[in-house]
Design goal:
This protein is of the alpha+beta class and 398 residues long. It has a domain at 205-333. Helix content is 38%, strand content 25%. The chain is built from 13 helices and twelve strands. The chain has helices spanning 6-24, 31-45, 53-60, 66-72, 79-94, 157-160, 163-168, 180-193, 211-218, 246-252, 324-332, 335-348, 358-383; strands at residues 100-109, 119-123, 128-142, 145-154, 200-203, 222-227, 232-234, 243-245, 259-266, 269-284, 295-304, 311-319. The strands form two sheets. Strands 1, 2, 3, 4, 5, 6, 9, 10, 11 and 12 form a ten-stranded mixed beta sheet that branches. A two-stranded antiparallel sheet has the order 7-8. A hairpin with an 8-residue loop joins strand 7 and strand 8. It is globular and about 70 Å long.
């Protein structure tokens, strides 16, 4: 936060914390419960490495973790209302019209079988199949910063097919099995209903084909979505002839089709790869939307690692005339959600949830999202603070 002085930054922290606490006050019917929620938030933002109930209670000066646990379990308040507050807060401070929604998932390692949604399943967080919960998240990424605005707990079929298990974890009766892409479509739908300003969606191959594509085409939102190497592409409507799997198309490309471009700056400078882009078809928006018109281009974007030649493939949808550098930049925004997961876990206890219930998971995660959003807004405001003018020194003649 180089744009602001230490004094200004401390003022930003204090005023921002008061602001977010005021925003969530209406969630709680009793003052004592609101006070416990405020202390819970303080604990997430504190410097304790583990954000467990005992650690948060000790930081709050409580004799035990019961008040902290009550916020996640026995208290009566709606986590989805807090999610909406977080989204409104993020949009108020970080919104730009060309923002990117990034969708991804992360794992929460767990012991036993009782925690809601826990199962032996693959998680990229661990890089293997392990006993864990899986959460699907949406991050809002703009030139002003990035923060989570939505989340959903994935329930495997081993859970949704077991009524007794669902009841024990207090899963609402309306919840049924939903794939991860279906959860993503729901989150995109909520963003659209809330009039969240964004132009693009980026995600990996889990979300790259099917319903997610259809939802975004109907909404006239661009996308860069990962696909597998065996996904088939074909061109038509006057475009250069392209047909085959993504891997076959990449191998047949003329060497001149590749461009070395940056997907954005990383910790070690520009994130350079070789890229190729194939336009496949121009389609009118009114084929998907009753309210939109104009030509959009369906395409295939290919990334090649400079050092080992490893390939990655993306299906794209964008207004006709969009250049390859824009598509590359959109794909590069996916780093933001990876950074968000790392920060939220290491600094805010995203994966330190000790509850077993559906409500406990969503409440804990939503409070972490609020803490993360507050930090993102402080960072943006501090970096854009007007530099203080130095007082002019009077010259004293001797």
């Amino acid at each position: 936060m180089m744009g602001a002085s230490i004094e200004t930054t401390l003022d930003l922290w204090a005023s921002s914390l008061r602001d977010v606490k005021a925003r969530i006050r209406g969630l709680f019917t009793q003052e004592r419960v609101a006070a416990s929620a405020n202390l819970f938030l303080d604990g997430l933002l504190g410097d304790e490495r583990r954000k467990t109930g005992w650690m948060r209670a000790e930081a709050a000066g409580d004799s035990g973790p019961w008040k902290q646990q009550a916020i996640l379990g026995r208290g009566r308040w709606e986590a989805d209302e807090l999610r909406d507050i977080v989204r409104e807060y993020v949009i108020e401070h970080l919104a730009t019209d060309d923002a990117v929604l990034v969708i991804d998932e992360t794992g929460f390692p767990k012991q036993g079988k009782a925690s809601c949604g826990v199962s032996r399943q693959y998680t990229g967080s661990a890089g293997k199949i392990t006993n864990c919960q899986i959460g699907v998240f949406t991050a809002y990424v703009s030139a002003r910063g990035h923060a989570f605005i939505d989340r959903a707990l994935y329930l495997p079929k081993s859970w949704t097919s077991d009524p007794a298990r669902l009841a024990a974890a207090h899963v609402p009766k309306a919840v049924t099995f939903a794939t991860k892409p279906a959860l993503a479509v729901d989150m995109i739908g909520r963003a659209l209903v809330a009039d969240v300003p964004f132009s693009w969606v980026a995600a990996d191959a889990v979300y790259g084909v099917g319903d997610v594509e259809g939802a975004l085409r109907r909404a006239c939102k661009g996308y860069v979505l990962g696909v597998k190497s065996d996904h088939h592409f074909g061109s038509w409507s006057g475009k250069p002839s392209v047909a085959g799997t993504a891997l076959e198309i990449a191998r047949d490309l003329d060497p001149t089709a590749w461009q070395r471009l940056s997907a954005g700056d990383g910790t070690k400078g520009a994130r350079l790869h070789d890229w190729a882009y194939c336009e496949l078809a121009d389609l009118d928006a009114d084929e998907y939307s009753d309210t939109q018109t104009g030509l959009w281009t369906r395409g295939l974007l290919i990334r090649r690692n400079i050092s080992d030649g490893d390939l990655a493939f993306f299906t794209t949808w964008c207004p006709t005339g969009t250049g390859i550098q824009t598509l590359v930049s959109v794909e590069g925004h996916r780093w933001a959600i990876e950074d968000s997961f790392e920060t939220a876990k290491n600094e805010l206890g995203l994966d330190h949830n000790e509850t077993r219930s559906w409500h406990g998971w969503h409440r804990h995660v939503s409070l972490v999202m609020l803490a993360f959003a507050m930090m993102a807004v402080i960072r943006y405001r501090a970096n854009n603070a007007a530099p203080q003018k130095r007082p002019r020194m009077r010259t004293i003649k001797i």
